[in-house]
Specification:
With 253 residues, the chain is of the alpha+beta class. It folds into three domains: 11-83, no CATH class; 89-170, no CATH class; 182-248, no CATH class. It is 37% helix and 24% strand. It has nine helices and 14 strands. The chain has helices at residues 11-20, 57-61, 79-83, 148-178, 186-191, 196-205, 211-215, 223-229, 234-248; strands at 28-31, 38-40, 45-48, 53-54, 66-69, 74-78, 89-92, 98-101, 107-109, 112-119, 123-130, 133-138, 183-185, 220-222. The longest helix is centred in the middle third of the chain and has 31 residues, at 148-178. Mean pLDDT is 78; it is low at 1-9.
Length: 253
C-alpha cells in the first residue's frame, strides 16, 4: 500500500508520520513484518555527473555539471504493526494540540475516560475526557504502561489540572468584576516585570502623556482604559493590571 502525499492523510498514516518523525506529508509504505514506523530515503539535493552530492546552491553555481535529484523520503511501517493498530482516530483537543488516540482501548476512572495516544514529536500521552473538557498526561514513569492504575493516575492528574483551571477562571472573573475601580501605576508595571523603556513608550504613544507625567508618583490609569488601548501590547498590559489588582486587594496582617 502506498499513500499519495497529496491526499488528506488517514489517522493511521498520521500516526506513522508522528512516530517516524516526518513533519511533512510524505508517502507511507507498508513492508512485511512488525517493524515500527521509521523514515527512509534521502532528501532532495543536487548531484554531479560523477555522483557527488551537494546542496541546492550548487545548481545555481555549477548548473552545467549538477542536476536536481528529487526526494525519496518516506515512512516505512510493518504490515503486522499497522494491523495491530487499526482502531485509531484523529482528534483535536481544546488546547489546539492534534493527537492520534486509540478509542478501542479506552478505560474509565470514575467519570473520566482515559485512552492512550500520541502527539507530534512522538510524545506518548493519555487523553483524558470529561464532558467537553480534555487533558493530556505524558506517558512516562508510573504512566508508561497502559494499566488500570496508570489510567487512574492520569485521571487524577486531569482532575487536578481542571481544578487549577477553574480556580484561575474564578480569580480572573473576580478581577474583571473589580477592574472598574482598579488604577494602574508605573510601579505596578515595573513590579510586573515590564521594562521602563516599553512603559514610557506606551505612555507616550497610547496615553498621549509626557515621560515626566508618567514618571510622577501620582499618575495612575484606569485598568479598563489600559486594556482598551492595549493593541499589540496585551500581555504586558495584563501583567501590569494583575500587579495593580494584587496591590489593591492585598490584606495586611
Amino acid at each position: 500500500m502506498k499513500v499519495s502525499p497529496k491526499l488528506k492523510p488517514c489517522p493511521q498514516c498520521y500516526l506513522c508520520r508522528i512516530i517516524s518523525g516526518d513533519n511533512g506529508n510524505r508517502p507511507v509504505v507498508t513492508v512485511p513484518g512488525n517493524q515500527s514506523p521509521r523514515m527512509t530515503g534521502v532528501p532532495y539535493h543536487a548531484e554531479s555527473r560523477t555522483g557527488i552530492k551537494a546542496g541546492m546552491a550548487a545548481l545555481k553555481r555549477f548548473w552545467s555539471t549538477y542536476h536536481y535529484v528529487a526526494s525519496t523520503l518516506q515512512t516505512e511501517v510493518g504490515a503486522d504493526w499497522l494491523a495491530s493498530r487499526r482502531n485509531v482516530g484523529a482528534i483535536h483537543m481544546q488546547d489546539g494540540v492534534r493527537a492520534i488516540v486509540m478509542p478501542g482501548r479506552v478505560m474509565r476512572a470514575g467519570n473520566v475516560r482515559v485512552m492512550p495516544g500520541w502527539t507530534s514529536g512522538r510524545t506518548r500521552i493519555y487523553l483524558c475526557l470529561r464532558g467537553n473538557r480534555s487533558y493530556h498526561a505524558i506517558r512516562q514513569g508510573k504512566l508508561a504502561a497502559m494499566t488500570r492504575e496508570a489510567a487512574t493516575e492520569a485521571a487524577n492528574l486531569a482532575r487536578a489540572g481542571w481544578a487549577r483551571q477553574d480556580e484561575a477562571a474564578r480569580q480572573r472573573k473576580a478581577m474583571d468584576r473589580d477592574l472598574a475601580t482598579t488604577r494602574v501605576t508605573i510601579h505596578d508595571a515595573r513590579r510586573a516585570g515590564n521594562c521602563m523603556v516599553g512603559i514610557l513608550n506606551f505612555a507616550e504613544r497610547k496615553l498621549r502623556v509626557s515621560r515626566e507625567t508618567a514618571l510622577s508618583s501620582h499618575f495612575a490609569v484606569p485598568a479598563l482604559t489600559l486594556r482598551r488601548l492595549a493593541n499589540g501590547a496585551g500581555a504586558a498590559v495584563e501583567r501590569a493590571i494583575q500587579a495593580a489588582y494584587a496591590r489593591e486587594t492585598m490584606v495586611s496582617i
